[in-house]
């Protein structure tokens, strides 16, 4: 008897069977006559790449894995488009509409069927699934209609890939997801949330905790109705709520079936001549839905068919979401519990979230969002159960950096080309990087020369240096010399301010996340600075954070060395009246103020007030029309004046009136540091205007403006800025100067060191020479004053809750 | 904590902030961190007696408002080069109610305070 080949019948031309046949022909090309049945009218293809086919990034031809040529070479009889309807195990044959086919060995590789949630309207036209090429074609067709809407039920991998694909085809897409966050089986809440934000940014609507109630429509779908009454109009509905192993044939044939077709380690079912593999199979009570384990099954099944011993071992799986531009990776178990330890890394500038869960010094799980480059490495560590104690501290930064330092340029790297780097000269990132490339620039002077970036105030030079270093790599010698703001960050003050604007960062936590702060909530040094930078950057929008203010600004009074406070009411231009003086005297009596003193800035200081009395003191002072003097703040302090032309025989102008006007316009504004002004009515300069931040000296023909002076330990006489004629000009120059200082100086830098740093010429250029720029600065100042000019005393005293916070808590007696 | 006394509600203390409490015969500062942990220390900086309840809370530390000594909330010890120690008290959250307990002996393990659930 000639050695007749055995007959092998394979049901299902999918990913698992394709791989199995490859192994089989490799090991024993002549062992079997193979007949391959496939319900789909086509051969094996890479099903997982249907997602890029849907989005239009790939064609079907590109994802075909086995073509006619291959089947021909291996003598496979292809029966595509034929559904196997039954198995006769006694006669060892399978049935199709065309008749029966005998087998010696039978392989079931029927995959799974999409799970259709049992709701009203599920059988309407336009309710689709996402499983094979026909589904992709149906979806693509629906997307041709302009403005067509799709509702995807299910926010898992499949649903999101469908949603992204349909959106790429121009549909308006809504994703309904039953659970709290997307990809709830693959991601933790943080990553799920980031993913949702990204999809929403792309225009996909996401509705989590959505309980679908019914699909509405006559014949064709029209909308989806949720339990909460929400209705989403739809031209098509994609059911992506899960899959069920396709085991109907096996059930009918009386094989052992639980959730899937039960197989042993060798992939053999309860019938020794029938094997099963792929998604339809159940091994050790597990059904798989990803290709990696199915490929292992394929190897084992091929061996079993050739009589070799082999056993399938369950493996860890990892998943990635295949949506272009959205990188998501997850593997293992990332639920925290006893003995687990979390390592979290965020880099919001790049939209990155990474979380590793360690257990017993080994990787137990990994969730990566935004940067999945190291997914494979973590997965490796996880699978190999490697002890990671030695690289623990650095491993979150990825394999390349596990032993090195973090990338200090990531925030700049993440900026779009259009982000403005040099505010003075309006130079954006793209202009700088292309100039570096085009002209082969190697240092900051070159950049200055070609782009003007950092040629003015210089505050952006740190960023320009980083761009140079980024573009040139190792060739760049002038490593960034920026001094970090504090130990919480490697960024300097100027960069932080610029990045706040460039990235549109609007809260302290946002800044810390985006700029990779190294401490959870900053420190006493950076928090007040950030609070100031944000309120300067976003007037009217930023909500001041009291807990990020030094005690004086938090309590609107000056703390003294014994823990009591001093209170200084404002006196406009140093003017007061009997009424105000009486109120001050009454307050001093009533609250037993031990010391009352006149200050150097021509105000009255009530020293030694108890903290719990502050709100009452303010209420009393407010009642007499007195407001906060901001003597405690990095803010406009006082405008000191001399008596001027009204009384003084030398006075040339009304210096008191000018002082009052300026103080009324500028009080309440927060600044990098304290800011003092003075107006003298003649060059004798009785108001000491030339040691103030902004000093005005009246002369016969107008007003001389002086800037950058201060008293204190190191007295600095002002620099002469320019001379102007009218009162309006004084106001514009003064407010423009304040705004320039507010925008350019570093927190806690007074005008004197600031001007020495940027140069008087820079200030002159901005204030004296550039009329348009000056007007704009002044306008920005007044805009911010619209929000900042409020009396904090009245606000604090007016709110009962805030009032209470000035008093200590006391032990309460519970009845 | 049998000897603990009710002193107020969690919301009485701002997050990343503190509040002074007059109880047990002295001034005590109760701190609430960004993570909503509570700590209680005597309201007196070991340097020059600055009121710690007026400082800036950073992580599990507070910067004294007078000269920026950093006091560790868990141990009551000054951080960095400074040397000094503040008395610690037990503090506990029951629901949203804050209970202040007795002085913690200085040789007891640091971090005796209680982490609390976020609201
Ligand atoms: C859009 C999409 C994206 C995916 N992305 C990924 C991914 O990124 N990563 C990943 O690991 N996995 C992914 N998967 C899952 C992966 O494709 C499946 O796990 C894999 O295809 C299962 O292989 P299989 O051979 O078991 O089943 P299938 O590939 O589904 O093949 C089964 C075949 O059997 C046919 N069949 C069923 N019953 C009969 C019958 N009675 N007679 C004849 N033929 C029959 C079916 O028509 C089908 O063609 C994705 C799936 C889809 C749909
Ligand atoms: S009193 Fe606390 S730092 Fe000086």
From TrEMBL, chain A:
Specify the superkingdom: Bacteria
Pfam families for the chain: Fer2_BFD, NIR_SIR, NIR_SIR_ferr, Pyr_redox_2, Rubredoxin_C
Q: Name one GO molecular function term.
A: 4 iron, 4 sulfur cluster binding
Ranges that cross the membrane: none
Q: Where does siroheme bind?
A: 686
* CDD domains listed in its UniProt record: NirB_Fer2_BFD-like_1 (cd19943), NirB_Fer2_BFD-like_2 (cd19944)
Family note: Belongs to the nitrite and sulfite reductase 4Fe-4S domain family.
The protein's name: Nitrite reductase (NAD(P)H), large subunit
Per the UniProt entry, what species is this protein from, by scientific name? Tepidicaulis marinus
From TrEMBL, chain B:
List the keywords (alphabetical): 2Fe-2S, Iron, Iron-sulfur, Membrane, Metal-binding, Nitrate assimilation, Oxidoreductase, Transmembrane, Transmembrane helix
Q: Name one GO molecular function term.
A: metal ion binding
What residue stretches are annotated with the Rieske domain?
A: 5-100
Tell me the CDD domains matching this sequence: Rieske_NirD_small_Bacillus
Keyword Transmembrane helix listed: yes
Looking up InterPro entries in the UniProt record yields:
Cholesterol_7-desaturase, Rieske-like_NirD, Rieske_2Fe-2S, Rieske_2Fe-2S_sf
Write down the PANTHER family for this protein, in alphabetical order: CHOLESTEROL 7-DESATURASE NVD (PTHR21266:SF32), IRON-SULFUR DOMAIN CONTAINING PROTEIN (PTHR21266)
Give a single Pfam family match: Rieske
Reply yes or no: does the keyword ATP-binding apply: no
Which compartment or compartments is the protein found in?
Answer: Membrane
Give the originating organism.
Tepidicaulis marinus
Gene Ontology annotations of biological process type = nitrate assimilation
Annotated Gene Ontology cellular component terms: cytoplasm; membrane
Name the record gives this protein: Assimilatory nitrite reductase small subunit
